[in-house]
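2024-03-11 09:14:02 INFO worker-7 job=invfold-0412 stage=load source=structure_tokens
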């Protein structure tokens, strides 16, 4: 069992930056693949970024590539999402999620799927004003 708690959201002007954190409980955090998703009002939850349990592979949605960076510190049981050059369309509730590894390669086609993940945080609001 993994419990996830996001923090770091807030209100920022367009062009600004925020860093989200996701703190995980449990001693097996380092074995989970981790992802960030977001959900805007009236829209489906969408993939933002993901990182393999070793930290050596990352994936990004095209809409955030070059602006967002996902990272993890397994010693601190924490995954981060550094968000730069924020745009109003980045406004959403951001969720972190943990994926208990299963057989097979963890490719982006899996990492970007909501149903791939086993545990979710409660979300943190990010609002970008124009």
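2024-03-11 09:14:09 INFO worker-7 stage=emit residues=130
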């Amino acid at each position: 069992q993994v419990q996830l708690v996001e923090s770091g959201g807030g209100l920022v002007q367009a062009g600004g930056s925020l860093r989200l954190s996701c703190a995980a409980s449990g001693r097996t955090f380092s074995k989970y693949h981790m992802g960030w998703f977001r959900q805007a009002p009236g829209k489906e939850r969408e993939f933002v970024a993901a990182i393999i349990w070793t930290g050596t592979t990352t994936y990004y949605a095209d809409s955030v590539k070059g602006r967002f960076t996902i990272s993890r510190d397994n010693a601190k049981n924490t995954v981060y999402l550094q968000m730069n050059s924020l745009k109003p369309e980045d406004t959403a509730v951001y969720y972190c999620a943990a994926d208990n590894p299963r057989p097979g390669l963890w490719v982006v086609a899996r990492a970007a799927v909501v149903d791939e993940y086993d545990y979710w945080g409660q979300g943190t609001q990010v609002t970008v004003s124009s």
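2024-03-11 09:14:09 INFO worker-7 stage=report msg="Residues 59 and 107 are 9 Å apart (CA to CA)."
2024-03-11 09:14:10 INFO worker-7 job finished
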